[in-house]
Amino acid sequence: MGIETWLNNVKHSITHSFDSVHPVKRSRLGVLAFEVAGIMPKLIHLWQLLSGKNMTRLRNESICLEGVRKIVSTDDTFLLSLACAEMVENLVAVSKAVVRLSKKCEDSHLRSFESVLDGFANTGRDPHNWVLGWKEMEARNKKMDRYVTATSALHQAIDELTLIENNLKKVVNHKISDYNLKQQKMIDLQQKLHWQKHQIKCLKDKSLWNKSCDTVTSLLVKSIFTILSRIKLMFNINHGYLASLPRSLSASATVYPSDHALNSFNFVSGPLAKSAKHQEKNNMSHGFFDINSKILKPSSTTLGAAALALHYANLIIVTEKMIRSPQLVGVDARDDIYSMLPSSIRASLRSRLKGIGFSASDPVLANEWKAALGKILGWLSPLAHNMMKWQSERSFEHQKLMPKTGVLLLQTLFFADQEKTEAAITELLVGLNYIWRFEREMNAKALLSCNNFKSVQKNIS
Question: Three-class SS of residue 188?
Fold first, then answer.
């Protein structure tokens, strides 16, 4: 075979490499496998959140966080309703992707998934017996996990195949004076190409790629129904409607070291429940998913409604770092944090600092401030860090990744009362101002003392 003919065969092999890996059947998922591989981890994560262990932790720890009780709510029922609504909302988001996939199915039951799910949510009717038992769901989760792993490996293998193809094209088109060297490189790359295509063929069989759309959609649909059924069971939801839950939000607060409270915040909770008649009417006019979605809408007094939750989380974390090491804070850093403050906190801060002298040399007061700031950070900082974790996991870059934490919105600053949060932040800044000036004065005195000592030593010598 002449070298020209052989080179043409190589080019033809490269051009049709993907088609020769495996003939794509019409009913197979194909490239949609990668989208489905991003859906499955979310369903697995939701199911894990609903385990007995995690639900116990939710009731005994998450809603009992000191910060949650101080600036979000003291009403357990309301807090649990937020947790329930967020889980339902996450499930709805996944369901929308499955609805799109179900339209491609041959099974008419699967194509009507959207309406059947809505009916199941509202009435509890499961006409196709899509709700699985616990053990069966656990087995399905393990299967989905294997599919996700294999599909991820397939994606990586296809990327590697593309790299080999590009390298082979470069060698074929590159003019190399040593004919034997060029031929050997092409032979090596062709061997890698054939081996890689074989690997991809095996991975397509193991992964979601070669699975039928109906088979995979059925797996996803049954998982969604089972998770929704588990949510209803765990949160004691009957007849498809979430029971009306009273809101009990923090009504007042004082922050140490202001005059009214030395060591803690004190709150008074007041129920904001609607009348039973109005609740019944509301349940009749709105479906289960609509009701849950409305529960997640923050009230006008919260940071979520003001779109300040993430900004205040950043502000609290920066302030926390400065309080931990005030001696390392420069003037520029102080100016930077001041520029982060909204007008409401600036006004409050100016009011608190008005009349305070420039001297900060009292070590007893400095220690009291450090203790007070430590207590405030002890309950406020976890909510700020949780806010950052929650936001990070939902960023565009991480949307297809398995969530690493079980942080819920109720554990963040999203539902925190704006006035109380700003009072706490103001107190942190007032305290930071004092201990920062105290550290600078102590350092200045130490430096002056050292210089005087050196001068005395010099005069003696």
Answer: helix
